[in-house]
Amino acid sequence: MVGILLVSHVQSLADGVKELAKMIAPSVPIVAIGGLPDGSPGTDVERIFSGLNEVDQGDGVMIFMDLGSAVMSTEMALEFDPNEKHIMQNAPMVEGTIVAASAIQAGSTLEEACSLVESQRNVDKF
Amino acid sequence: MSVNKETLLNIIECMQKNITENRSYLSDLDRAIGDGDHGINMDRGFQEVMKKMDDMKNQDLAGILRTTGMTLAFKVGGASGPLYGTAFMKASDLLKGKDEIVIEDLPSLLDAGIGGIQMRGKAEQHEKTMLDALIPAKIALEEALAGGSSSDESIKAMLDACEAGAEYTKTIKATKGRASYIGERSIGHMDPGAASSLILLQSIAEVIQ
User: Fold this and answer.
1) Residue B83 sits at the chain A interface (C-beta within 8 Å)
2) What's the predicted TM-score (pTM) here?
3) Which among A8, A11, A45 is the top mutation candidate for probing chain B, defined by the most B β-carbons within 10 Å of its own β-carbon?
4) Is it the case that residue B177 has pLDDT exceeding 90?
5) In sequence order, which ranges of B58-150 are alpha helices (DSSP H)?
6) Could you tell me if B82 lies within 8 Å of chain A, comparing CB atoms?
7) A45:B120 CB<8 A
């Protein structure tokens, strides 16, 4: 099954998105990473590394990030350990994660879930 | 001017000393237009680099810059980590197999670093970022050297341009990063990344002059 990695500046934000996604997608592997090792806000490349390893079951990982340095830190992690099935998602973290989790829960492949997120990422909230 | 391994380690140590001394200054600048942690983040990163000193003493010039870059990228915790980290690593690529840096190498090392920052941050000049300090600094150094200025004169030209570039960031509004969310209200404040870039270049000058 495709995994989802959440990368946020704070652990509780990543945990909250995970909790929401788990309600609709209980079987999907989701790992929430947030903040620095000492608990202060920020993004930590090493924690992103270990999160990727933890969530990867071999079918790929979709990565959702909150802001700025979360994106850059994730890019760095991917450069040091390249894997074409670890894909950063250019989508809002909450909406994107819910779209991906629903699709993966329903049996989507990495490619299918990524194109669904791509097609949904500019959908108006109202 | 010639920088060997020992001098390079001194430069990195000097960078740490100056970043630590300016921790509050950098965070204050960041508090005005961002999230207020630039000084804390940079200090944490360079403190971690210092912990690698013993390893770096056994490395060549390229290895030293690579270790510094990797450590900053991994440990700073904010956007400046991957940005400066990539800069040091790109500069490291130019030093493979070398055991000495001469003044004529400095523009291309800066250029590689700037390229790394642009690649990572997808930023251009005039967006109120560290690039506004670094790009003019590199150009001034290049021009001074091409015009036959001495090593000391060229370094001075580089620092003057860097400082002017950092000052210039006060006059423009941010269009990149978190400061861009406050738009016009970012005018009047120096970009903290431009300020830390100036400190890093001043540290190089402090050691080699």
Assistant:
1) yes
2) 0.92
3) A45
4) no
5) 61-75, 80-94, 106-121, 131-146
6) yes
7) no
CATH of domain A3-120: 3.40.50.510
What is the distance between the alpha carbons of residues B7 and A123, in angstroms, rounded to a whole number? 55
| A44 interaction partners in chain B (CB closer than 8 Å) | 74-75, 77
**A9 catalytically annotated:** yes
The CA distance from A27 to the nearest CA of chain B, in Å, is 32
Burial class (CB in 10 A: 0-12, 13-18, 19+), B12: buried
Q: How many CB pairs under 8 A join A and B?
A: 43
Q: Which of A6, A9, A64, A88 is an active site residue? A: A9
CB contact under 8 A, B78 and A69: yes
| pLDDT tens column, A73-124 | 999 999 988 999 999 999 999 999 999 999 999 999 999 999 999 999 999 9
For the cut 90, the answer to whether the pLDDT of residue B180 exceeds it is: no
- Domain ranges (residues) in chain B: 2-208
Q: Are B198 and B130 in contact (CB under 8 A)?
A: no
Q: 3-state class of A12 per DSSP?
A: helix
Q: Is B181 on the interface with A (CB under 8 A)?
A: no
pLDDT of B93 above 90:
yes
Distance CA A121, CA A115 (A): 10
Q: A72–B77: do the CB atoms touch at under 8 Å?
A: no
**Torsion (CA) A12, A18, A21, A26 in degrees, nearest 10:** -140
Tell which CATH classification among 3.40.109.10, 1.25.40.340, 3.40.1550.10, 3.40.50.2300 matches the domain B2-208: 1.25.40.340
pLDDT at B25: 98
